[in-house]
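Feature request, filed as a ticket because there's no other form

It would be nice if the structure record came with a short human-readable summary line next to the tokens. Right now we just get the raw output. Example of a typical job, pasted below so the devs can see what we mean:
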Amino acid sequence: MKFLLAMGILFTFNGTVTAEPIPRIVGGILAPNHAYPFMAAIEYSSDNFQFCGGTLIAPTKVLTAAHCLDTSEPVHVRIGTNNRVTDPGQKISVISQVKHPKYNPSTLDYDVAIFTLAAPVVLNDNKNLMKLPEACTSLTCITGLAKPATLVRTAGWGATNPNGSSASIDLRQVDVPLVDNTTCNTAVGPGVTARMICAGFAVGGKDSCSGDSGGPLFGYLGIARTGLQTGIVSWGVGNCGDPGTYGVYTRISNPEVRLFIRQQSGR
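Raw output as currently delivered:
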């Protein structure tokens, strides 16, 4: 799983590309130190290999992508750090991983999961919770932070090279605009469902990339040092940040996705 997640997985259905889960920051900048206290790095416990990201939404709950689940070996999350080498933060084992019951690994529909931690995160200035939107049926609802052209942010420790290599030990960020599903479907293929939301620039150059999967797409509330999360890094086609394509994220305001999160986390 390390190799597949690091390199990206290309799924085909009847010979057509449906989704490429590039646990996918290209074209971004270093994140300010401790600006995002809700960020979680998901790592293998055996060697601290970081393969996905996540969001702290309750003291013992991390929101991530279903394709980040790995039950073959122990994993942990690392909270409260920007540089995973020089500042270890708080490391806590994951004791259970639950994915959405409708998750489809071939299309990455319902790509959402909740990790439960062995002990609660001690909340402070460097470790805090992400805010979540309420459910809404509209694909453009303002309350769900889903209106096209809204500038949002994604962050992670993933690759900084468009081909998915060269992972970062430092947390990085990039701002991208939301894109309506019709435009996105035209660009990446007909696999964008109501459980998904897209973001990016038509000219390319800025995107999430390998190692960022499961991390948040969010509106940043700087004064409160938190955010309102609209999506979960899920999949894309081609190289990260290619022109004419967009990143695809799990849509948190979708009623079925939002209900699953509430049932599993109490949020």
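Something like this underneath would help us a lot:
The chain has one domain: 21-265.
Residues 255-265 form the longest helix (11 residues).
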